[in-house]
Amino acid sequence: MMRTMMMMKRIVLLLTLLGFVTVWMFQTGQWNWIMKPFEERTCFINDSRPKHTNVAFLKTHKTGSSTMLNILFRFAERHNLTVALPKGAQFAYPNLFTSDLVDPYTKPPNIITNHMRFNKKELEKLMPPDTVYITIMREPSAMFESLFDYFYPFCQSMNRVPNKSISEFLDNPFKYYRLHEGDSMFARNCLTFDLGGDKDSFHMDYGARLAAQVEETFSLVMISDYFDESLILLRHLLKWDLEDIVYFKSNMRSEKAKKKMTPELSAKIRAWNWIDAYLFDHFNASLWRQLHAIGLDCVARELQLLDKAQKKLSRTCFGQEMPRLNSGSKIKDSALKPWIPKYVDIVGYEPATDLSAERQALCTKFVMPELPYIDAIRKAQSERYKKQHSVTV
């Protein structure tokens, strides 16, 4: 009997001590740290800032920006934010952006991300004062090859070239290029044009001047060629969670559709698109300075966590660690079917058919192409606006 009572006292004492430790851990922020497995710890765990929710993302052409649009749309939906959408299909591109192009049902916005030609003054009229400006760039020879393949049917400067030959265009570009045509931005320095710059400037210092303007406005210039590393910087800048940056790539061509770059062809592309090449080299170097400032060990750890989360998501949606790609022309579901330009093989996704309704809805948003997602966001925000307006009245 005595031994039993002693045992009970020890148990009570142990439980009391455990209770005090638990309360202390919770109050001092240690609880989450201990409860998370070691491999889930992040370099940014002690950053106590709230998530930043006001973001202007300049969506540049053929740089992986459709994938970023999907990330931002999902973030907006999860956090009940408003996304600025154009009244029509886009913000009057290739004209400069003006705030009156925004659908009134999508004002006042937290996020803007559709294609536009950048106009800082007009965006500042629309967006909150604490908006963080972000854009993305891509190695110019890979970007131009993609532009040429994608816009060949629509861009007159490209379409004049027989047999869709990018080599023939670059051998004598001024034979085909007309700088004053409305679609000529796809044929030269498209990135410069999207940034609101002069794609046909011949001033030797223009690239440096434009880079300085971009640095003054944009808190982060992502690099498509280092997309995951760029997302680590984005997450650090905006204090987002890992789940906020998990993604599947959007608007991709099939591998067989891509033209192989030779050193000679790449050099010609960079010479023709010399301003874009200057900007890329400048901001690629800037990206790596920022990564070194965080610490490459920390970046590597974050990349491991992102890769683990990506594989978990893929297993959830596809039953395997890599997502299954299908030719876009074979996808029947309109909510999952990407827009397919003439003569271009675009791939898309179809999640597994045996998913629960909840998982099906989750996975659909991760793989939903740009145009169907814009329609879905527009419909949801229009209904929310009308509901709020009727309540106000």
List keywords for this structure.
alpha/beta; 393 residues; globular; 8 strands
Question: Secondary-structure map with pairings?
Answer:
Blueprint: H1 2-27, H2 30-35, E1 55-58, H3 65-78, E2 83-84, E3 111-112, H4 120-126, E4 132-137, H5 140-151, H6 156-159, H7 166-171, H8 190-194, H9 206-217, E5 220-223, H10 227-238, E6 252-253, H11 263-272, H12 274-294, H13 296-318, E7 325-327, E8 346-349, H14 357-367, H15 370-392
Parallel strand pairs: 1-3, 1-4, 2-3, 4-5
Antiparallel strand pairs: 6-8, 7-8
Structural commentary:
- With 393 residues, this protein is of the alpha/beta class.
- Strands 2-3-1-4-5 form a 5-stranded parallel beta sheet. The protein has a 3-stranded antiparallel beta sheet with strand order 6-8-7, with no helix packed on it.
- It contains 15 helices and 8 strands.
Order of helices and strands: HHEHEEHEHHHHHEHEHHHEEHH
Global morphology: globular
**Largest beta sheet: what is the strand line-up?**
2-3-1-4-5
Number of helices: 15
Report the major sheet. Answer: 5 strands, parallel
Described by its quaternary structure, the protein is single chain
Strand percentage: 5-15%
The overall pLDDT average reads 88
Number of strands: 8
Class derived from helix and strand content: alpha/beta
Percent range of helical residues: 40-55%
Which ranges are low-confidence, i.e. pLDDT below 50, for 5 or more consecutive residues?
Answer: 11-39
